[in-house]
Amino acid sequence: MSIAHLITLEEGHGDAITTPKSPELANIKTECTAVASSSPTTSRSKSSRARDFMLRLPTWLSSIPRPKIFIRTTSLRIDGAMADLSIPKLEEFPRGFPRLACFLDSDESFMVYKRFGIVFSRLLLNKQDEIRHMENKLRAMDQADNVDDRRIYLMSRSEDVERDPQSITYASSESRPQLLRLLETSLLEYSELLLKANQLKALEKPSSRDYRSVLRYMEKGGGQLFEEEMSWIYEKEDLVTLRPGREYAWLDGILERLLNLCRGKFVRYIFCTAETDARTDDIKIHYYDRRRISTCVTMIITIFILVLLMVPIWLLYHSAVHGTITRATDTIVLILAFTLVFSAVLSAFTRAKRHEIVAASAG
Description:
Number of strands: 6
Largest sheet: 2 strands, antiparallel
């Protein structure tokens, strides 16, 4: 095979070597390239070859196949995980109860539900009267057997269980052991209802801000419920929230309100995460990371307490150096004022009891 068969000329571009399709051709190509480069008539300068390579590079790069990338707005990749992290998104749920359920579960501030306090009271009253009626029957049985010849049934449970039905003188459809079993069942049901009602009553009521958020979402078509189905949201006095009652919950609300007013890239970078951004595409619904909000609130409280501790010390030191306070009364008034402010801060920002506030103020 001759060298002329392996080297072709392209018009306007000089020499170009065809791509070999076998190892033998590759070896011949290498030899040809060496011969061509050593020949003074067919050699090109290094700068010409480099320029030709740079001109062909974009074409080669564009011909490389690239993997397809699917953008999933509700999935996040976790390092080391086998699959993406799935985030429930409001718009992916059908309008109605499915979307409303997703909204109420999307943030702890929106977990507002009906307590059904009147229904619990009605059930408790009904069960209470049922037990009262059985209690009266039990007392009547005891009084009927409180005579000499039947008092043995009050003194021995085994005798009462093995008692001959013909010896029962009181009018009742069940014996005393049967009545006691019915009483046990009713009392257990009554106790369970009573404890559940107490637990529901202990739940906190939603704040005005959280209640308005849920109400506004439901009224503006977020849930798309019929008027009868959404009537429970207007019974505010019977609503409870599943949001844990943290000490600084109201301060969280103030901070979130300020963040909504000055919401921008910096605020979203500091207080939002990829998970919170993936929950909805609605620009009117704002989600913030609870841990970052709590951290910011803790820092605010810490700075405030440090200021209350350091400012009176600095004022007393400054007044002692410059002689601005000449009477002991002025010092006492200054200390008393900051002690009152410190007590007010403890009452407002914590759930400390009265004796704890007194002890902290005295210290």
